[in-house]
Amino acid sequence: MANRSQIQARAAMMRVRFEAAGAQVVDPPLLQPADTLLDLYGEDIRARAYVTSDALRGEQMLRPDFTMPVVQMHMSDGAEPARYTYSGEVFRRQEHDPDRPNEYIQVGYEVFDRNDPAGADAEVFSLFALQLRGLPLRAATGDIGILTAAVAGLRTTDRRKAALMRHLWRPRRFRVLLDRFAGRKPGPEGRVSLLDADNVLDIDVPMIGKRRLSEIEARIEALRADRDTSPISDTELAGLETLLNVRETMPFALEQLRDVAVDLPQITPALDRLEARVASLQARGVNVDRLDFEAAYGRTSMEYYDGFVFGFYAEGRPDLPPIATGGRYDALTRQLGNGAEIPAVGGVLRPDLMLEIEEDAQ
């Protein structure tokens, strides 16, 4: 097992390589304002982060990742285009998996460039592949933007599309909603009698919480409107199911997705971006004919990414988390930039896991 000094030495070497690619070194504070992280991740972050309080600065969290503070820094006063690199500790509570470390070092590289997003995607991926060259890893890629485009273009109500978007990161819940909106499954037990009642308050339903009567009535009317909405068509549903099951090498995946676009034409612009990315990766020497693409990749662990996503995995060590992950997060720059935005892509590597895999290979 590598010791801390070995991990730090490897991290420093990797950061120097990113500097050679044009990145500026940044070092965000260990303590981050909790309100920003809560706005970004929701209350769920409390189960994964270490929270403390300060009499002057309020609630704080030990840095759970680097992306948020780097984006904030850039949106505040960064030049364009910009490239950043960093290395340092992040802190994650591991109450459900005590064998995983709750403090470890990340090395990262972030690109903010509005001129050539496909080229920036290829730049980040190829630099990561170079850092990991020689290790027995499998690279996986995907594109969250294709699925979000498919959902956004469904011929159904905005309320239904918003519900599907909200649960995009929870595949089981997303599937339940999709089946319900397509008329394949009934709604929750008891909802039919509730919606058929002339006066909701006349039926035996417990009053829980602090919602006012007007809020309850508005919710009931919204549910009734949803009940009377036509189901998502079989054609669109089949297209979504086919899309989610695409798992091929990049060129064949693109070909399959072009076929899906016959039934879901709203994904065509996202596929054009994927095609440009494939060309940019090829131009940087990446063998796309052997690069895996999974249309559903990233849905369970990459909540702020909204486009290209990637990860590197040690198939011989399924017990290990990803050695490196990254992707595009354009929407995050808008969320943290008070309306301003810039296309951005980046990722992080785990030098400790790299050293562990190297030891296994000896």
From TrEMBL:
Entry keywords, A to Z: Glycosyltransferase, Transferase
UniProt-annotated binding residues for L-histidine: D65, F66, T67, R92, Q106, E110, R299, Y304, Y305
GO cellular component annotations of the record: cytoplasm
Source species, domain of life: Bacteria
BP term (GO), one: histidyl-tRNA aminoacylation
Pfam families assigned: tRNA-synt_His
UniProt cross-references to PROSITE patterns, sorted A to Z: AA_TRNA_LIGASE_II
Domain Aminoacyl-transfer RNA synthetases class-II family profile residues, every copy: 14-351
GO terms, molecular function: glycosyltransferase activity; histidine-tRNA ligase activity
Membrane-crossing residue ranges in chain numbering: none
Signal sequence, start to end: none
Quaternary structure note: Homodimer.
Record-given protein name: Histidine--tRNA ligase
Protein source organism: Ruegeria meonggei
Gene field: hisZ
